[in-house]
Amino acid sequence: MDEKYGNALHGGGSNMLGLRIGVLVAVCAALCAAIVLPAARPAPQASPQGQASLAPAALANDPKLIEDLVYANRILYQQDVLDGFGHVSVRSDKDPSHFLMSRSMAPALVTSNDIMEYDRDGEPVDARGRNSYVERYIHAAIYRVRPDVKAIVHSHSPDIIPYSVTGTTLRPVYHVSAFLRLGAPIFDTQEGFGDTDMLIRDNKLGDALAKVLGNSGVALIRGHGFVAVANSIPIVVYRAIYTQTNARVQAEGMKLGTIKYLTPGEAEKAQAIVEATVGRPWELWKSQVGKIQ
Amino acid sequence: MDEKYGNALHGGGSNMLGLRIGVLVAVCAALCAAIVLPAARPAPQASPQGQASLAPAALANDPKLIEDLVYANRILYQQDVLDGFGHVSVRSDKDPSHFLMSRSMAPALVTSNDIMEYDRDGEPVDARGRNSYVERYIHAAIYRVRPDVKAIVHSHSPDIIPYSVTGTTLRPVYHVSAFLRLGAPIFDTQEGFGDTDMLIRDNKLGDALAKVLGNSGVALIRGHGFVAVANSIPIVVYRAIYTQTNARVQAEGMKLGTIKYLTPGEAEKAQAIVEATVGRPWELWKSQVGKIQ
Amino acid sequence: MDEKYGNALHGGGSNMLGLRIGVLVAVCAALCAAIVLPAARPAPQASPQGQASLAPAALANDPKLIEDLVYANRILYQQDVLDGFGHVSVRSDKDPSHFLMSRSMAPALVTSNDIMEYDRDGEPVDARGRNSYVERYIHAAIYRVRPDVKAIVHSHSPDIIPYSVTGTTLRPVYHVSAFLRLGAPIFDTQEGFGDTDMLIRDNKLGDALAKVLGNSGVALIRGHGFVAVANSIPIVVYRAIYTQTNARVQAEGMKLGTIKYLTPGEAEKAQAIVEATVGRPWELWKSQVGKIQ
Amino acid sequence: MDEKYGNALHGGGSNMLGLRIGVLVAVCAALCAAIVLPAARPAPQASPQGQASLAPAALANDPKLIEDLVYANRILYQQDVLDGFGHVSVRSDKDPSHFLMSRSMAPALVTSNDIMEYDRDGEPVDARGRNSYVERYIHAAIYRVRPDVKAIVHSHSPDIIPYSVTGTTLRPVYHVSAFLRLGAPIFDTQEGFGDTDMLIRDNKLGDALAKVLGNSGVALIRGHGFVAVANSIPIVVYRAIYTQTNARVQAEGMKLGTIKYLTPGEAEKAQAIVEATVGRPWELWKSQVGKIQ
Asked: What is the side-by-side strand order in the sheet with A151-155?
């Protein structure tokens, strides 16, 4: 076959023609492949704004940290935990008093070029004209007092709001949300701050939220949303998603009858085993997002 | 044909052949790209009807006004606020006593060619055989008495109907729907008009609705739907979407316990900050709609 | 590169080569186009079974009748009114004692080749080995006693079942479902037939159902589903869809408070105007289904 | 045309060129076809891990058994019964004391290469480094005591959890879920095992679950999920899907009023007829999954 192949090539124009056709059709096939991969939720068009002159890889020692952070944004959007609002951050692996988060934009559109570095007070290290999330102080404050926390999600999930405004405690209804055994306290900006615009817009509010969070994995913010914290990106994404699922299941259970929640012993064991296998859902969620341009 | 075909090929036919291959593959690639962009909600096929001989751009000084109006239609359909029914309008920037709205058709299919101009009484300026929405008087009446209002949405949202038929007041449960602090009064056509077909089909009904709306950002219409008003298209679209979300969250909260709503002070501050940042969700929603043919 | 290109073309085979490339790429483009058109709900693959030797067009004087019937199947599937079960029929315009319906298969996959003709007793006119729906007697019985009815839908909608098993009457909550003013009686096979398999599998059961339906536009079948009837395909599809929507809205309203339903006068007027404009949603639903292969 | 065709072929290089073009375009067309077929739920990318040196067909006498098992995984994922967790198995047709199930991975990604064989104690026959589901003992234990059972599904369905934690019995509300007449007992790991991690991780727990299951078609596992069993893959998939649907419908019905469930006589007859026609929904669900790579 190689000889005939050589003859065909030697035929002159067929060489270049075949090559060009092969390239053109491969491009078409690649475009078709690009359609197979992405998710069912409307795929928005990224609109880059503000070019970072430092390659994002320089923001972390491990480039996978940046990659996972970008995936976290996309996954949380696709899993309906984040919409146009909300954000996710990771503690820096270069300077543990710093953290990384996207510039202020919709999580659905975040790429590695959008990741910025923040210092311990939540101020951007190298803004270069890019806007930051107003509520970055949620992240800064929690990183300051929780050395065990490596990643944080803030969401306005409609499923959580009813709990936050009725003072209902989220509790682990089933094994996948066993981490709720650590508590789901409710922070109310009214207490201590009176009438505010409800946003955690400075370190004082951030500190008050972190204080209420204590050692829990989740805290609700009355009339606003919730935060989830964990020691890795896959686990914090998992916790954000299953806090939301537990909220729906618990509400339905409360309408059916009296719920027998996980006992402290059950929840402790279940949390350990479920979070040890977080790789499986994490890989599935990443594959559902597909390749990120 | 074969002979001419052969001649064309022979005569530097490579030029034509390469060109034709390029065009055919580009067509295939363009079709593939057309799939990448549109949204997950079934993408309907536009069916133009009635050619406007005046270019739509002439309907407004700022062509972006028309473009935003078209996007508003598509976004509200994609966000499940409008279905086959409902409409959105914008006050004319050429003549503030006039307003612009699509001809009578499903919002999902609206293009700039479908936009028409209406006078202060809700009558089309230049119909040219095109049908108008029966309920354009909703828009005409509100524009007449609310000089601050620049855009209006009318929707039959199933999430809102339960509030309208039980006399339950929509109130701001969380910060994103703080604009509900302005009120969500319920207009009942029974009162003053007895048995009607429930549609706001003339200026008398429109005036009665506008009177109940007062200075609110939202009014419910019993057994029919609701209207949202604002001083810009992005904000009225935002309000329509979050009125619907608040309705779901409030209903769930009421099943869980007693809701602590936003205080007037919280709502005033939250509304200001949230509506100042409406650009972020607006851009995301536009990107989810993608390019409009 | 051009010279070698020219050489390859000069080899004669370029004529056929260009033609073959054009055809192959056009096929790829056509496949891509086939993707642009269909809907977001998983698009199943039709599996033809049993070739009709009579062209389906011969089953009706107006070929549009067949086309609308096929669209009705696809629309009702896409709008979540039908799933693997359920069916829709239309009275024959050749012989008004006959009716047309698909052979026994999932509505999502129905094409014009699957349409069969049934006589006044619900028996196939020309089966030719094709299976019929067990419950065709629902249709036969109603056509026999309701000369005004030209189209019928039978669905197992989960939203309707709760009403059928609790004896709760569906009533028009808002204008789009005003046709419910005609009644939504509940037929229970237990009464008169004792323990059955719940299916309307013969004319006796069909007659009993038709008797309970009376002059209503909708009847529920306890622990089974519902039927909707109307004088045209677009209206019966509309009624089936909005019976389901009304069921959801009414259930939510009943949880919020006491519902003020449409008065008889309001419902009569609203039904008239809404059903006069059924063309708009009908065209939108058809465009969402897209081209049917 | 034939002569020139012959010339082209005779030309040597064009033969290979034409062949290569045909192959490249067919690849593109196949990729396009792959888009037409799959479903609206985000289509994840399979990530093979661990090559089986035994062709999977050797695991069963009937290759269709393997094919149906793979489809069952994909269908249950698409129908929202399984997510990243959960699994489905089938009794081996070579050795009835053995069963077949995917290696430990997300059901959405399962292919025939991932199927493994397990012995009567739930241990892999030929692991070759591949991980097994921790909860395979659910399947092993039930196969041991239920010779009639040929297929099993285990799911964490959020719709079922509320029943499992409130001790509410799932009962057949309508004909499609008549199989619930066989019972839906609730197994609670607390009873007999105290605080565990909630997983059925050994044969003792499996035996206890199988004992509670008894002769039912479904058993709930408190704070965990449920299992469905049947004598074929299509029927067990059907039962898993409709257990979930019945859960939603029953919950809604209980909020509306007092439910009149199917009588034992109705349920027995309905189950027989509905399960005799499981082929129709099964074929529809397979076509919605489309071709599996």
From this structure: A115-118, A99-102, A87-91, A151-155, A225-230, A218-221, A186-187
Q: Collect all residues with Cβ–Cβ distance below 8 Å to B127 and sequence separation of at least 6.
A: B116
D1, D28, D32 member nearest B2 (Cβ):
D1
Q: What is the DSSP string of D84-139?
A: SS-EEEEE-SS-TT-EEEE-SS-GGG--GGGEEEE-TTS-BSS-TT----TTHHHH
Contact A166 B22 (CB under 8 A): no
Taking only Cα atoms into account, the Rg of chain A, rounded to an integer number of angstroms, comes to 23
pLDDT per residue over C103-123, tens digit each? 999 899 999 999 999 999 999
What is the rounded CA–CA span in Å between residue C201 and residue C197? Answer: 9
Residues of chain B with Cβ-Cβ distance to A31 below 8 Å are 29, 32-33, 36
pLDDT at B42: 54
Rounded Cα–Cα distance for residues B176 and A165 (Å): 14
Confidence class for position A40, pLDDT limits 50, 70, 90: very low
Q: B128 vs B40, which has greater pLDDT? A: B128
Nearest-Cα distance to chain B for C77, in Å, is 13
Q: Active-site residue numbers of B?
A: 135
Chain B residue nearest residue D42, CA to CA? B40
Q: What is the mean pLDDT of residues A6-27?
A: 47
Task: Give the separation between CA B145 and CA B203, rounded to whole angstroms.
Answer: 12
Cβ-proximal residues to B16 (8 Å cutoff; 6+ apart), any chain:
B8, B9
In whole angstroms, what is the distance from residue B44 CA to residue C285 CA? Answer: 8
C54 pLDDT higher than 80: no
Q: How far is D127 from chain B (nearest CA, A)?
A: 40
CB D20 within 8 A of CB A22: yes
Q: For A264-293, what is each residue's pLDDT tens digit?
A: 999 999 999 999 989 988 999 999 999 987
Is residue C9 within 8 Å of A18, Cβ to Cβ? no
CA distance readout (Å), C277 to B131, B133, B280, C287, D164: 12, 11, 37, 17, 47
Three-state DSSP state, D82: coil
Nearest to A229 by CA among A135, A124, A148: A148
DSSP A131: -
Are B162 and C252 a contacting pair, CB within 8 Å? yes
Scanning every residue of chain D, which has its alpha carbon at the shortest distance from the alpha carbon of A282?
A: D84
Q: What is the pLDDT of residue A14?
A: 46
CA distance D139 to D151: 9
Residue A80 pLDDT level (bands cut at 50, 70, 90): very high
Using a CB–CB cut-off of 8 Å, the residues of C that contact A are: 1, 3-9, 11, 21, 25, 28, 32, 35, 40
Task: Note the helical H segments in C81-172.
Answer: 136-145, 161-166
3-class DSSP assignment, residue A277: coil
Of A12, A32, A40, the CB nearest to C7: A12
From the list B186, B220, B223, B251, the residue with the least C-alpha distance to C260 is B223
- In sequence order, what are the beta bridge partners of C218? C228
Q: In what order do the strands lie in the sheet with C218-221?
A: C115-118, C99-102, C87-91, C151-155, C225-230, C218-221, C186-187
- Rounded to a whole number of angstroms, the CA Rg of chain C reads 24
Alpha helices in chain D (DSSP H): 2-10, 13-36, 63-78, 136-145, 161-166, 190-193, 203-213, 233-256, 264-276, 279-289
Catalytic residues of A: 135
CA–CA dist C221, C199 (Å, integer): 9
How many other C-beta atoms can be found within 10 angstroms of the C-beta atom of residue D174? 28
